[in-house]
Structure formats: structure tokens, C-alpha cells
């Protein structure tokens, strides 16, 4: 099979093209070669986007227990008050749901913060809880939550 192509196109006037382009862009910018940027170091990329924090089980237990105290109230000299308020141990038990690893670690961290702030004489959370005011107890709870957050536990 033979294919015929027609080649009788009108020749292009190069000067006409140049004039048309001059009208469209009267002051063309000189073309400068571009050098690709150096790749961004990974450390810069990671620093630009802060890491997403995911609370660990101990931080969650402490936070939930403090939220429980905020909602139901804080009590002294009793695990559970008749109106629903709880002491620190009662709030931990309510938040953890069971005496699991998170419950034990949260209790240890809470007692460690209580000793750090109020002296080494405290052997257990109930004795410390019953011997301090609500704001003092809350301050220790908040410090324990911050510590769990920084330890990522």
C-alpha cells in the first residue's frame, strides 16, 4: 500500500513569527540556567513537623483518674464516699478498671511524685492522700501525668 503525503504547505515566515512573539512578550527575560536545590536534610524535615504524641497506658490511666476526680470529687479517709467522690487510690482503680500493669505503674509514679514534693516519709498513696489538701493532691496528680508524658509511658 502506498501512502501519499501532501507537502504543499505554505512556508512559514520566520520574521512574522518573531514579530508575533514580540507583541505577546515585548521584553522577554533572559533565560538563565537553573541549578537544582540541594536536597533538604532529613533532620530539617523532621524538625519542621512536630511528632505526634500518643499517650501511653500509664499516662492515660493517670489522666482518666484525674478526670474522674474532677467529675465525681476527691475524698479523704475513705476509698469511696457515699456521694461518689473517691480518694486517689479509688480514682486509680476506677480509671484502670483492674489492677493491671498500667494501674501499678501509675500508682508507683503517683507515689514517687508525692514523695518528691512532700517528703520521703510517705509509704503509701492513701496516707499521703489523707494528709494533704485538695490543691496539693491535684498538683501531684498533674506532675505525675507530666512525668508519664515525658517518659512516654
Task: Describe the fold and architecture.
There is one protein chain. The mean pLDDT is 86. Helices cover 56% and strands 0% of the residues. With 153 residues, the chain is mainly α. The chain has seven helices and no strands. It is rod-shaped and about 105 Å long. Helix 3 packs across helix 4 (88-96) and helix 5 (101-118) crosses helix 7.
Shape: rod-shaped
Number of helices: 7
The largest pleated sheet is described as: none
Order of helices and strands: HHHHHHH
Radius of gyration: 36 Å
Counted beta strands: 0
Assess the beta-strand content as a share of residues.
Answer: under 5%
Helical fraction? 55-70%
- Separation, N- and C-terminal Cα atoms: 80 Å
User: Average pLDDT value?
Assistant: 86
Residue runs with pLDDT of under 50 for 5 or more positions: none
Provide the structure class: mainly alpha
Topology:
Layout: H1 14-24, H2 42-48, H3 57-72, H4 88-96, H5 101-118, H6 125-130, H7 134-151
What can be said about this structure in brief?
With 153 residues, the protein is mostly helical. The chain has helices at residues 14-24, 42-48, 57-72, 88-96, 101-118, 125-130, 134-151.
Supply database-style keywords.
153 residues, 7 helices
Amino acid at each position: 500500500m502506498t501512502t501519499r503525503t501532501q507537502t504543499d504547505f505554505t512556508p512559514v515566515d520566520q520574521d512574522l513569527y518573531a514579530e508575533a512573539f514580540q507583541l505577546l512578550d515585548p521584553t522577554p527575560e533572559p533565560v538563565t540556567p537553573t541549578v537544582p536545590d540541594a536536597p533538604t536534610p532529613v533532620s530539617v524535615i523532621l524538625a519542621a513537623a512536630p511528632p505526634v504524641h500518643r499517650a501511653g497506658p500509664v499516662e492515660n490511666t493517670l489522666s482518666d483518674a484525674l478526670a474522674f476526680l474532677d467529675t465525681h470529687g476527691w475524698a479523704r479517709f475513705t476509698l469511696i464516699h457515699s456521694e461518689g467522690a473517691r480518694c486517689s487510690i479509688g480514682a486509680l482503680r476506677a480509671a484502670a478498671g483492674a489492677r493491671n500493669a498500667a494501674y501499678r505503674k501509675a500508682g508507683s509514679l503517683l507515689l514517687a511524685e508525692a514523695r518528691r514534693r512532700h517528703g520521703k516519709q510517705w509509704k503509701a498513696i492513701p496516707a499521703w492522700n489523707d494528709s494533704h489538701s485538695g490543691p496539693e493532691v491535684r498538683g501531684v496528680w498533674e506532675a505525675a501525668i507530666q512525668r508519664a508524658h515525658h517518659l512516654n509511658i
